[in-house]
Request: fold
Amino acid sequence: MEPNRRTVIAGAAAGMAAITLGGTAHATGGRKPVKSLFGKLADGTKVHSWSLENGGTRLEVLSYGGIVRSLEIPDRRGRYANVSAGFDDLEDYVARSPYFGALIGRYGNRIGKGRFTLDGRAYQLSVNDGENSLHGGAQGFDKQVWDVEPFTEGPDVGLRLYHTSVDGEMGYPGTLRTKVTYTLTRHGDWRIDYEATTDRATVVNLTSHVYWNLAGEGSGTIEDHELTIAASRYTPTDAGLIPTGELAGVAGTPFDFRRAKPVGRDIRVFHPQLVAAQGFDHNWVLDKGVTARPGHAATLRDPTSGRTLRIATTEPGLQFYSGNFLDGTLTGPSGRAYRQGDALCLETQHFPDSPNQPSFPSTVLRPGQTYRTTTIHSFGR
Ligand code: GLA
Reply:
């Protein structure tokens, strides 16, 4: 795949030191994040784009939604491609994005009927997905302009993103102060550290909604990508994609990704759980559970380019969404429309609807506590 024009310009302007070994470009160091104006919101608020590079990984992040607008990694022959779906223009992100590349909060995935009770008090959240609340409600963290602070620390480069959500926003109790750190390490890993504090008891479940296509965005289906998920169970859902509360075994079902399997292999097997979601759109219960340090969750590999993504997380769950609702109406930077299954999401998280599921690991955050989770994306080829 040809790098797009923007990429070429960014690479040249950065004067990146690179050495060529048998056709493979090796980055020799991190690059200080570079800021540029990406666009303006209707009310005149400026949205900036930040470009950073380290260890052979190139990342472009928007202050709007903390959106990963592009993430470029080399294939086995050293050829770069943007492996994350997105748009060229801010207007598309504002008007029609299905959470492309965005930070998700206050609550990743769904809360049934947008309702929950905490400490005896009932809360009604913003409902934006049928009768349910999805990804924080109508104006979630994906639609906020974050304060962004660049850093270079030792061999690392990165961005700190800050957002304060006021008490009652989207129906959630408590003023939530959120800090998300995106770090590119010298090995080219993209690490996300999430932190949040509150002044009233609340629920929190932050994640990142990158749509991956390791062959390059706009290159067609991800059904040939091989996926491994380190989970023996998943959380089946009702027709509205709300977990029933059951933890079902994956053995003998299309949901078994314990060994590497092409995403498309079982996607057309008749299974009631694949019907409502029109494919995979479920939470896998990671065997490692909640961990103090990031533990292995999933591996994604594109056999054609050789590009691989490994995800490690402190979180107990992983939402694997096979891009089922992409319907050809959205066009990416490559100029090609995204059809069903042209990209997939692997969202590390606590389980959907946890505030209404007493048996699921708790998502409650209280004053004096700090919410802290980490997810690391490592790339190979
Ligand atoms: C998550 C949800 C999906 C869908 C996408 C965005 O993955 O689980 O159902 O909402 O986000 O379209």
